[in-house]
Amino acid sequence: MNRVAYAILLIVGVSLLVMPMSVPRFKSDAAYSVLNTEWNGLSSFGKLLYESGEITPVLVPYDSLGLGDMNGTLIVVGPDMDFSRGEIEQVKEFLEGGGTVILADDFGTGNELLEGLGLPQRFSKKPVISLTYTKNYEFPVTREITDTALSQGVDYVVMSRPAVILNAQSPTVYTSNASMLGGEYGAFPIMDVVSYGKGEIIIISDPDIFTNSLFPQNEPFLRNLIGSLPERTFYIDEAHHRDFNPYSTGTIVIRRAINKRLVFYYVLFIAALAFIIESGIFGLLLNRLFSFLDRFFREERKGLDEIISRLEESGLDGDKLKKILREIETGSKLGGGHGR
């Protein structure tokens, strides 16, 4: 076989293994939408979810979706549309069945959901002011994360005009001690983890933690948060974003990471194929196969001749028997003049 043919097989095979894929992509300009690629969207966080498990945008009310019968993690970031009574009942069933809910909000409608679930926690109506910040006072940073699973590799979490969680039960993340809410000073909780039935609800008082603009600073914390979840099936709420409107489609290119082991095995296969063909082993195997088939059909013919001989000894006409066999083989009696 020509060496060029081996080279072509090698190049085509390896190219297919590393060739990038093009998949359709929708966009939205709604704040806190996973389809929004601008500074106030969650597309970077969405990619993190995609890397960690299965992600499904929720585009319809929870009672239409049948959320109560599902398993996984419902993520609600920055809702600004009311939750109906039927939706709240679905969230209850989801939590009681072992689901996890992440509710990240500040001054939107998150309190409505907390009240409907019968929880005492509330998002404050005013932002907390802190002397510990990054760019300016509107971007305060946390200084205490009590959960070691969340604090691994995390120095702080950057926020943007966050609320705080009132009546927190099991807070795990706080603002710095140099913070003020109304006339009170101290460290205020911005994350609370609450057991509910067999599941739990994670309350976070700043949706901006998840946005593209703060994702580079908060990625370690968000990775830890996703890694701590019991389920890796994610339902991310788009139904409670008032301005959600997928306005265009395009393509996104995903480049496959090179699987070195698979490439190695493919190259080894091509090398083995070249060796078998060029060394003559392939031809020898073909000769053996043809010899076997020839011997098989020859023995089959010999067996037929012996049967005809025995039938002749019984008084039958051997020539007629052979003629019948030939007609059966050619099918002339079955297909008439067409020889089918």
From TrEMBL:
Presence of keyword Transmembrane: yes
Transmembrane portions of the chain: 263-286
Ranges of residues in domain DUF4350: 36-225
Keywords in alphabetical order: Membrane, Transmembrane, Transmembrane helix
Protein name as annotated: DUF4350 domain-containing protein
Organism this protein belongs to: Thermococcus barossii
